[in-house]
Amino acid sequence: MWWKWASNRERVTFRFGILLAFAAPAILLGSCSGGGPVVTGGAGDEITPAQKRFVGSAIVRDRGCVTCHEVAGGGGSVGPNLDQVANRRSPEWLRLWLRDPNALKDGTKMPNFQFSDPELDELVGYLRELKRDLNTPAIMSRSNTSEEKGRMLFDAYDCSACHRVGAAGRFIGPNLTWVGKRRPKPWENRWLEDPSAMKARTFMPNFKLPQGERLALVEYLHGLQGQRNGEAKRWEDNTAFFLDSRPREVGAMVYRRFGCDGCHGERGEGGYANVNAAPDEKMPVIAAAARDNSRDVIKGILFFGRKPTLLDPAGPEPLPCPAWKGHMTDREADLIYEYLLSVSPPKKKFRFKKSGG
């Protein structure tokens, strides 16, 4: 009976107490193994010498890198998986990132550790060894369909180190569960060819993909049209239990699952490029949309979509807001509205100056 009258804080504390009770044995085992998360090598994989050097180094252990990053099947899930970081990042980029993460990604959760130059040399030396032989030509030589090859390339390039499909992957980049409904093939092809040309200061690396690989990945991505939406929702339901089902937090998860942040930003700040969309070829700011419009208006846009006005009637079609009716539930639309309302900036108050006299 106490649950009915408990505060939100008491409810969340109780739920995390349950989680801790189940997690305690694993935590104790991890602490007995020498401190920090246990690195296992994954499902049947051998830990490579480079992985051993990284997780065993004093600087990595002292700074707790594997608290947020996964390496060899162990570690955290806040930051990208680092098993293949050298396949997607150059030593020069890694050095810039470690020196000042916010200079490359505004609002990143990565702390600035104020590394010295010798520490940067040491860390970049470890990270540049974390890579695998991709052997993508062998994938392309198979008799599989282009979409199947794209799925294998998606795994080979370790795209799930940053992106999520269904309940698998990370939240660093946009969720790709519905990307095939949100993005036409020509757009995906241009994006994979040169991400920074379409979005300045993007965190997405340029893999310099050969045309054949790029087109195969486009086929795979275009095929992602919500087939794993159910598993994503179950993950959200389980997570919502520990968030006391608060609309803002749950709405943020739904907002990301449908990929709204891929166009409008994590907090609806907009500004992403949208070629030939009036008035400024950018995605609109939607953070204030829930503040300035009714719930029914926002839900109408979510369910029935909206096409932007063309800047040049003879130019290419800009990306529209997809129509999610039949895919998004009424409750999910309500949650997105609640999330947008929670991040809406306050309305400016106008003050009238008193006239002198």
Please describe the structure with a list of short key phrases separated by commas or semicolons:
globular, two-stranded antiparallel sheet, mainly alpha, 357 residues, two-stranded antiparallel ribbon, disordered N terminus, single chain
Averaging pLDDT over every residue, what do you get?
86
Strand order of the largest sheet: 1-2
Termini separation: 65 Å
Query: Which spans of ≥5 residues are poorly predicted at pLDDT below 50?
Result: 1-16, 18-38
Overall shape: it is globular
Strand/helix succession: HHHHHEEHHHHHHEEHHHHHHHHHH
Count of DSSP H/I helices: 21
Tell me about the biggest sheet? Answer: 2 strands, antiparallel
Number of strands: 4
- Approximate strand percentage: under 5%
Q: What would you call the structural class?
A: mainly alpha
Structural features, described:
This protein is an all-alpha fold and 357 residues long. Helices cover 50% and strands 2% of the residues. It has 21 helices and 4 strands. The strands form 2 sheets. Strands 1-2 form a two-stranded antiparallel sheet. A two-stranded antiparallel ribbon has the order 3-4. The longest helix is centred in the N-terminal third of the chain and has 25 residues, at 8-32. The N and C termini lie far apart (65 Å).
